[in-house]
């Protein structure tokens, strides 16, 4: 490992690197989650390979200390543009620029354009990516510089959203065309409910501000699928492709397949509310809009679409009222409808759950309930949804949930459990079924009474919800003291062990001190004979339902019941994992 040289020698080396063009450009693809095609490349920089300044972290830190940051930033742009053209890469070039370099009083806005002109690259193919290594102080100067870039055809991207000094303010102030979510929030997304909530919130804001989101740091298939389901349109990371001086021109991504489930088993999401309505484009005239509303008397709002993406909403009553004024048609009839539209309609991804959609609608302006909302797929327009249909769907869900919920714990009962198993089998998803049962529960009921028995069951139901991932796992109450968790969390075994530990701690408060000392109590058994029973414990029988092992929910239930009986054959709190059927299946495939 090279030790850090003295500052004087580093200054001389850095000056040589800049003056002699010794920087190397690498490119990392940015892929579309719609079709897996490459949308563009981010240009990255490395110093000379044998130098302490090879690492970009060292390179930019030293340049900042020596007051050479702006010169280095410009040299990096020059190297990246030249290499991008030489490689004949397609799509857009994401060109990293330090915001403070643009906000300098002596900043020359035409310098980057001159580099592009010399290289034969148009600004329409370049996205200025703001990398926030320093706090931004002069927002007005930065906005002026970026406005100059936009007027020349450049787009703007904000890097590392969620990290840095003021990324959310930059988003609000600069209104970039793209935002990149910091990799911290993307890595491990499939197993972290809080990260998923953060990413969903960013996607909702982006949809309603016309911003396109890029998820950085994709390092697994699971995270890619979660990002795609949330509706984020673009991805970048080692799982997609690593930075390379000669990057790939095509990718072979395993994108999430479209929903081919039977209609009765589809997920309860915004996509189910989708209805087709006429659409218009921003340049259509007010007269044409009035004609469309006249032709479709039942349509209350028209989505305004620009290049496949929703940009606004025209409301019937507002348009009719506007053109009902004296001379309005003569003055404004031939003008673009863009001036009449609501630029901030509610826009949601088709995968948004009905519960989440209901919260968005009720928390937002009441007009969204009356006029509806726009539904998208990866940011592209799919159709409209109405507040009436949403309320009806939510009501149906609540009625159905109440009908099939266990009245004691309010958890889904047998019917929803069976349906959820059938959905997982139909989708050919791997899952783990855990059958949970209280041991020696009847004697506890007999000694302490049904009210205390109900308390123990409710306590267990709450524990199950606490150990399960609400985004990945399904908790159900079969009846009595029997429960079921359908895990899709990869760490299901640890979650089961946590459940046993938590139960062992919390159940103690439900026993009298003398019974705790005796580790049990006397009660009559099923034959009416007095017998000593141990304190109630918990048994968990687990089966791993890999693709093709089970065909129906009846088979899953039977196997889980058998595993539960084997778990109950052990004394005290126990976990039994059935391995034989899976081993038999693997032997048949071998």
From TrEMBL:
Residues 273-331 form the CBS domain. PROSITE patterns: CBS, EAL, GGDEF. CDD domains: CBS_pair_GGDEF_EAL, EAL, GGDEF. One of its GO terms (molecular function) is cyclic-guanylate-specific phosphodiesterase activity. Keywords: CBS domain. InterPro entries: CBS_dom, CBS_dom_sf, Cyclic-di-GMP_PDE-like, EAL_dom, EAL_sf, GGDEF_dom, Nucleotide_cyclase, Rev_trsase/Diguanyl_cyclase. Residues 7-257 form the EAL domain. Residues 429-580 form the GGDEF domain. PANTHER family: CYCLIC DI-GMP PHOSPHODIESTERASE PDEF, SIGNALING PROTEIN. NCBIfam families: GGDEF (TIGR00254). This is Bacteriophytochrome cph2. It comes from Iodobacter fluviatilis. The gene is cph2_11.
